[in-house]
Every structure is written in structure tokens, then in C-alpha cells.
Design brief:
By secondary structure, the protein is α+β, with helices and mostly antiparallel strands. 23% of the residues lie in helices and 25% in strands. It has helices at 4-13, 121-124, 128-131, 144-151, 158-163, 173-183, 196-215; strands at residues 22-27, 49-55, 58-63, 67-72, 78-83, 93-99, 103-108, 115-120, 135-136, 168-169, 247-248, 251-252, 254-258, 261-265. The structure holds a DNA duplex (14 and 14 nucleotides).
DNA sequence: AGGTCTGTTACTGA
DNA sequence: ATCAGTAACAGACC
């Protein structure tokens, strides 16, 4: 269930790999969403991992010769660290990276919507999937004013705008519902109908929800776990997502479909602007 | 058996 | 050219 907070939690958990030297990379499933570049297995054994960082929902592992392993977790991908002696390969373990220390890093992804890329760092950041990304959701230069400028001509609903990685990157379907509830803005509101003040509120809610989710270790729906296998907690703090059978202060939560994705919201709290006065 | 699910993008048509 | 909307990818789960 990897959106920005889960990817950030994963990246933080991988920090213990920094400084290690790669010994081998084994590919068990060559074709994920895309085919894993074959030359990844030719990584020289004297290469060190010097930095691990996140861009939107992408994980970048930077090596001492300026090459970079990029991993996207897709819908169901997970990165786990194991002690070499205790590791036993499981179903859907597609790529295993072994270091000179006791660690193994394992990429597991049942649905195979994730992918792995490998190239010089300067080439990776020129790939279209990176270049097309909009401003980071937690970038401090994302202000209400900037958001307003980006969306005030858009006819699509604000829920859809939050999911559009070209406008803001990092938010996924679950946090979009939670953010809009926090901002008391209806997911059905068109981008062009949000005033500057709404955009300011929305930016606050984006920061608020994503930051709290990161501090809770992300959310564990179904099977998301951090690199050491522990569960995130933030799903316990969901106000609307997956709660269409319950109420908030006696007000019903509704589940609707928008562009084929489920949206959860409370129509009595997230009232459409035209109906307010 | 059939519907649903966290993400992304190629494609279509306006 | 830009914008909006749909289909497709694969497996697990209910």
C-alpha cells in the first residue's frame, strides 16, 4: 500500500545499508512492470551504497560510481532487510541484493506493478517517469498560492487532482480521501471552484496528514510492512478511508467511485461550496 | 465466479 | 498542442 508515507518509511529503514558494499544482485523475476535491466547483475563488487533517498514514490539507491538503482513499489511491492543466515526465499521475492555486511535487501511484489531500473544517476533523473513528476507533496515551496495557480482552471474534481502525480507528487488514493476530509473539502469539488483560502487549507491538510502518517510508520492495510517487518500504525487513525459503514458524530461516511477508484468522504462535513452559506 | 484493491501510463478523442 | 477519460497491467482476497 505504498504512498509517500510508506515509501518514506521504507527509505528511512534502508539507511542501515548506507556504507555497505554490494556483493551480488540476483534477479528471480526479470519482468515486473518493465523488464529489469540485465546489466544490474554486473554491478562490480567494490561498489558502495553511498546514499538512499526518495523522490515522490520512487526509491533511489545511489552507488559510489554514480550509478543508481531505482525502485518503485507499485501497488503491492515491499522492500525488506533480512539477516543472511535467517533468510528463506518466499513467493514473489523478485530481486535480492546482498552486501558485505549481514544484510540482504529483498524486493517482494505479488502483483508485479512495481519496477526496478538501473542506470547512471544523471540518466535516471532524466527518465520520463521522474521528469513528469510535479512538486513533492511535502515540499515547503508548495504553498496555497502555488496550488491555486496550478488548479484554478481545472475542470476535474479535486480528488482526481490530488492523485495526478504531474501536479503534486506523492499522494495516493487512500491519503487523498483522508486529506480532503481533514480540509473539509468535498472530493467532488472542481479544481476551478477552489478559492485561494481553500487551497491554503488543503496544503495544510496535505502536510498534516502525510507528516503524521510518516511519524506513525505509514499505514498497514493488507500487507504493507516496514523493512524489518513491523507494521505501520496510521491506518488506525483513518477517519474516512474504508469506513463507509460507520459515522462521525452521527454523520454518515459515503463511499463513491471516481474515475474507477473508491473515494470515502462525509458529505455533511465536506459540504460542496455552492451549498454553503 | 466475479468484484475489488494501494499506482502508472499509453492510448483515445475532443 | 492541451486536457479529460478509459483500459490495461497481475495476483490476492472476499
Amino acid at each position: 500500500m505504498p504512498e509517500l508515507p510508506e515509501v518514506e518509511t521504507t527509505v528511512r529503514g534502508l539507511k542501515s545499508l548506507i556504507g555497505s558494499t554490494i556483493i551480488s544482485i540476483k534477479i528471480h523475476t526479470p519482468k515486473l512492470r518493465f523488464i529489469i535491466p540485465k546489466n544490474i547483475i554486473s554491478i562490480k563488487s567494490n561498489l558502495k551504497i553511498i546514499e538512499i533517498k526518495r523522490r515522490s514514490k520512487y526509491i533511489l539507491i545511489i552507488l559510489s560510481n554514480k550509478q543508481c538503482i531505482l525502485i518503485h513499489l507499485g501497488m503491492s511491492g515491499r522492500l525488506r532487510l533480512f539477516n543472511k543466515k535467517k533468510f528463506q526465499k518466499e513467493k514473489h521475492d523478485h530481486l535480492i541484493l546482498s552486501t558485505n555486511k549481514e544484510h540482504l535487501m529483498v524486493f517482494n511484489d505479488p502483483r508485479r506493478f512495481g519496477f526496478v531500473d538501473f542506470d547512471l544517476y544523471k540518466n535516471i533523473i532524466q527518465k520520463r517517469y521522474i521528469l513528469n513528476l510535479g512538486i513533492e507533496a511535502l515540499d515547503l515551496s508548495l504553498t496555497g498560492k502555488l496550488l491555486f495557480k496550478k488548479i484554478n482552471k481545472k475542470i476535474v474534481p479535486i480528488k482526481q487532482i490530488l492523485l495526478d502525480q504531474r501536479i503534486i507528487s506523492g499522494i495516493g488514493n487512500i491519503y487523498a480521501s483522508e486529506i480532503l476530509f481533514n480540509a473539509k473539502i468535498s472530493p467532488l469539488e472542481r479544481g476551478m471552484d477552489l478559492k485561494l483560502d481553500h487551497c491554503k487549507t488543503l496544503v495544510c491538510s496535505i502536510r498534516n496528514i502525510l507528516t503524521k502518517a510518516i511519524n506513525s510508520g505509514g499505514s498497514s492495510l493488507k500487507d504493507y510492512v516496514s523493512v524489518d517487518g513491523t507494521l505501520g500504525n496510521f491506518q488506525k487513525k483513518f477517519k474516512v478511508y474504508g469506513k463507509d459503514k460507520s459515522t462521525i458524530n452521527g454523520k454518515k461516511i459515503k463511499k463513491i467511485l471516481q474515475y474507477g477508484r473508491s473515494t470515502y468522504f462525509c458529505p455533511d462535513i465536506q459540504i460542496k461550496f455552492k451549498k454553503r452559506y
